[in-house]
Amino acid sequence: GAVVSQHPSRVICKSGTSVKIECRSLDFQATTMFWYRQFPKKSLMLMATSNEGSKATYEQGVEKDKFLINHASLTLSTLTVTSAHPEDSSFYICSAAGGANNSPLHFGNGTRLTVT
Amino acid sequence: RKEVEQDPGPFNVPEGATVAFNCTYSNSASQSFFWYRQDCRKEPKLLMSVYSSGNEDGRFTAQLNRASQYISLLIRDSKLSDSATYLCVVNTYNAGNMLTFGGGTRLMVKP
Questions:
Q1: Which of A10, A75, B33, B96 has the highest CB neighbour number within 10 Å of its CB?
Q2: Residues A49, A34: contact at Cβ < 8 Å?
Q3: Contact in structure between A4 and A111 (CB atoms under 8 Å)
Q4: Are B43 and A109 in contact (CB < 8 Å)?
Q5: Which residues numbered 34-73 in B keep a CB inside 8 Å of some CB on A?
Q6: Strand, helix or coil for residue A20
Q7: What is the pLDDT of residue B29?
Q8: How confident is the model at residue B91 (pLDDT cuts 50, 70, 90)?
Q9: Cα end-to-end span (Å), chain A
Q10: From the list A46, A99, A101, which residue is nearest B32 (CB)?
């Protein structure tokens, strides 16, 4: 069964509104969570890495004020797309890893965001 | 040079063929390695971890070559259902997970 739950799986919102996406690890403590976006037929693009209790590390070109990431507990991270625009429409995926150095990544099932 | 590199493909192979992908990594301190499979419009799913001694799971064999800094994935007797994008992931653990993805290799198995 799924070990990482991502919600919602699909969301449609209007321009200017904010959307929050949740990522939960279900049966392990996720010391690190990652957020990605993916355009059709393209590879995953890492947006940010967050370690529990500390500020997220954003990849170059990703606006931290636009994509707010919170990782307040070992089982929950959230990504908020603020003041969404149509160009933010994409597939957003979270993943989580445990604390050991041989921990594989477990992915959420993704959120398809459409901004109208 | 990218930290983790893969040939994007696509690799077009007939059913029953054997196909192999490589993934090179630049950081010699990398410690753990994984292959993921991603189907179109779906999230990646763990296919297998890659162990130093090499490991096999059915038709899939993964190998690690630390000296040359690459991992490989071999698929024997390809099935139509193997068509997907295969991503390698490298973990350079340093007081926390630092996981880096390759860009993925697209495989298309034809009847």
A1: B33
A2: yes
A3: no
A4: yes
A5: 34, 36, 38, 41-46, 49
A6: strand
A7: 84
A8: confident
A9: 34
A10: A101
